[in-house]
Amino acid sequence: MLSALYTDKENAFRDEVRRFAETVVAPEADSIEESAEYPRGLLKRVGEAGYMGALLPPAYGGTGKGMVAETIIAEEISAVCPMLDVTRGVTSVYFAPPVNKFGNDEQRRKYVPPIIAGDKIGAIGITEPDVGSDTAGMKTLATRDGDGYVINGEKRFITNGSVSDYILLFAVTDASVKPRKGMSAFIFETDTPGFSVVKDYDLMGMRGLKVSHLKFEDARIPASALLGEENKGFTILMDELDTERTSLAAGAVGYSRTAFELAVKHSTEREQFGRPIRMFEGVSFKIADMAVRIDAARLLTLEAARMIEKGLPASRQGAAAKLFATTAAQEIASDAVQILGGIGYMKESKTEQIYRDARLMTIGGGTAEIMQFLIQREIYKERGY
Ligand SMILES: Cc1cc2nc3c(=O)[nH]c(=O)nc-3n(C[C@H](O)[C@H](O)[C@H](O)COP(=O)(O)OP(=O)(O)OC[C@H]3O[C@@H](n4cnc5c(N)ncnc54)[C@H](O)[C@@H]3O)c2cc1C
Description:
Blueprint: H1 2-5, H2 8-35, H3 40-48, H4 67-80, H5 82-102, H6 105-117, E1 122-125, E2 141-145, E3 148-159, E4 166-172, H7 179-182, E5 183-189, E6 195-200, E7 211-222, E8 226-227, H8 233-269, E9 271-272, E10 275-276, H9 281-309, H10 315-340, H11 350-359, H12 368-382
Bound molecules: flavin-adenine dinucleotide (FAD).
């Protein structure tokens, strides 16, 4: 199945990443879950292995392997440690590629290589206390002042926020027009005076991930922090989201796969009524449905990834992949808990963790309802309505 979908080179790359995930990441996954400590050292090893540069050019230390390779990395790392892949994705997929695409040479040289190496950590700051799905309603202000900007506002739910060195920060530069026409993107360095971490949230799942509430009070940044043109930030935001969603979808395929494998194994080993529980259709038909959903999620993700790689508009495909893969992941995680029975609900079983981890992804990166909104909008647009 996999070999038919992917080229030989892609399959070989998957084998390589899987070996890394199993030998380097897996041994640390349980202690991250237990301690909820941010795995900075492990992220650095991901960088050293070259898995933070698939979307970035060799000139800055990337591998330039492209979006399909990125989805392979996301799937394989998520399969053993979902939170590690989220922090990896935020720094190397959401932060660095927009800097590479919209930045000038100086910005690329300064910010991209340390992110790829895992020496510095990036974040993306869109969401605010009053602004979630409606990103165009943003309130954080960047006021022009002499040769720089002064930032005032708050961002919340920012992944990597408290551990980040740089934030791809979206703020309003022209409040007299609609935010989508008056929003700009900045590379904000977190050692800037006026920046503070209000708190890190205590999360339902994805233990170890730092998701923060951030405050900007008269934080002064130089004009050179502007990414792209002033008031053109909304274009950068929209461009970034297709890749983000496709990578998140691939991650969901990864942890779905782990929950599925645990359920398959348990259903052959556990006996009730004198036979393995897989002999009951109430169990084995669930296994069939789980497998089909994983295959379908991977196909949608691969389609979006190939479109992005070809430079084709992929908003519908990225949204569809994320909607399907993340919804399916929650159903699959729930079915896995069910198939394991009581032990599936216990902390000692990985299904319990995946069930909680998976719950995030129909919210973060745009909710399932917003994905449905985007998909229907593209459908009508494609037909000229
Ligand atoms: C763990 C975590 C990490 C995150 N990381 C980041 C990050 O790194 N950077 C960042 O900027 N943001 C981040 N977010 C924020 C995330 O993108 C938002 O939570 C998400 O976009 C939803 O916004 P909201 O929470 O304000 O919900 P709201 O927008 O208030 O939505 C509440 C409910 O209303 C529904 N709804 C809203 N509008 C519509 C509509 N038009 N049609 C139908 N239903 C609608 C939503 O689907 C949802 O069910 C993160 C969130 C979490 C939970």
